[in-house]
Structures are given as C-alpha cells and as structure tokens.
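I'll show a record.
***
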Amino acid sequence: MTELVAEAARRLQAAPDAESTMRTAVELAQRDIEGVDAAALSVIRARRRIETPAATSRAARSCDELQYDLGEGPCLDAVWEAEVVDVPDLSDEPRWPRWAPRVVDEAGFRSMTCYRLFLADQTVGALNLYSRAPDGFSAVERDHGIAIAAHIAVAVRDAQQIDQLQAALDSRTVIGQATGIIMERSDLDAFQAFVVLTNVASDLDRKVRSVAEEFVVTRRLPGTPEGVGRPPRAPYDG
C-alpha cells in the first residue's frame, strides 16, 4: 500500500493544472482502492457552493449532483460534518431517506465511503467512492482511502492556487495590453486609459478583464460608437 500511495502522490504532483489534478485523483482512487466501482470529487466553490468537477462515471457524477439538489447525502456530510462517512448498505440507510433509495434504484450502487479533503486551515471538498456491492470496502481499503485522500487534498489545493495565480497574471497582461492601445489611440496617459477601460466595464456591468479581452481582439471598445475610447469622467468633487 505504501508504494501505491507514493506513486499516487507523484502522479498528482505531476498534473499540469487543477482540472488534470482532479481527474487524476478520481482515476487513481478507482484504480488503487479495491472495491471501488466509481469515484467522484466534490469541491467547494465560492459561497459554499459544491460541485463535482471530476468523476470516473456518469452514474457517480449524477449521484453526487443528486445530493446537491436534495441537500442531503454522505458527500455533503463529509464536507461539512465528518472526516469519514462510511455507508455499508445504501438499501438500508435511514440518514438520507430521499437520496439513498434513488441511488440504489437508478445507479445500482450499494455502498460507499466519503473522505473529507482538508488541510490544517482549509476544507477543499470530499473524495466519494462508490461500490455496487454491500460492504464494498474492507477496513484495510478504508484506511488506504484516508491516505490517498490526504495526498489528494494537498495536490488539489496547490493546483487551485497555481491556477488562481496564473489567472491573475493573465488578467493583468490583457488589461495592460488594452490600456496600451487606448493610450496610443487617444493620447492618454496610463491612468486615464485605465479609467476609460473601467468606465466602459462599469457602464456595461462587465468585468474589466472581459472588456479588455474583447478590445484586444476586436480593437473596438464595447459600447463606444467610435470603438476607441472616451475621455475619463471628471472626478466627483461634490
């Protein structure tokens, strides 16, 4: 088991971005943990919204999403309440009376285990393992899942932070390009050109980056007939 966990950690760290990391995570979980028929990853997004960005089957993804729709299920409990949620038999499960029967009837899963993905100061989401057999996971495999989940939590958090940093750098680059074009065309300094860009974004209720991207591609500022820019608004002095 130690060798499998070490290999999983290396593969997770080698993934180039968050999407690839999460896809690798569910593939490794299904491959390396005996009894897993499908694996899925629940991830916390903004405003405590949870979604499943990676799953090894449509059935697992649908079962995850059904939990979010109903507001009940072991994945949600793992994210918010318990570090490990073990479900030996979904056909005899009173904790989630609306969700569990539908999973058995519609997807054919009979047991599952969910692991919270967390670090010392942050919960990332949950790793959700599905089995078509009752009591699908032995005690040894459940412990294996804990080890795999710990590595997945670190890898996903790191990949998300790198993606966020790259997005911020990309945003600064395209905004800088758009500002430079406005400066050249309208004979404005950098601050005035940036104000033009933010004015347009505000008028259109769009993000500055979105307006900048369109302008760099089309060379027309959205919402301006001349397609170049407008002088900055006079500062409010009232």
Observations:
- The chain has a mean pLDDT of 87.
- Residues 173 and 209 are 9 Å apart (CA to CA).
- The first strand starts at residue 38 and ends at 44.
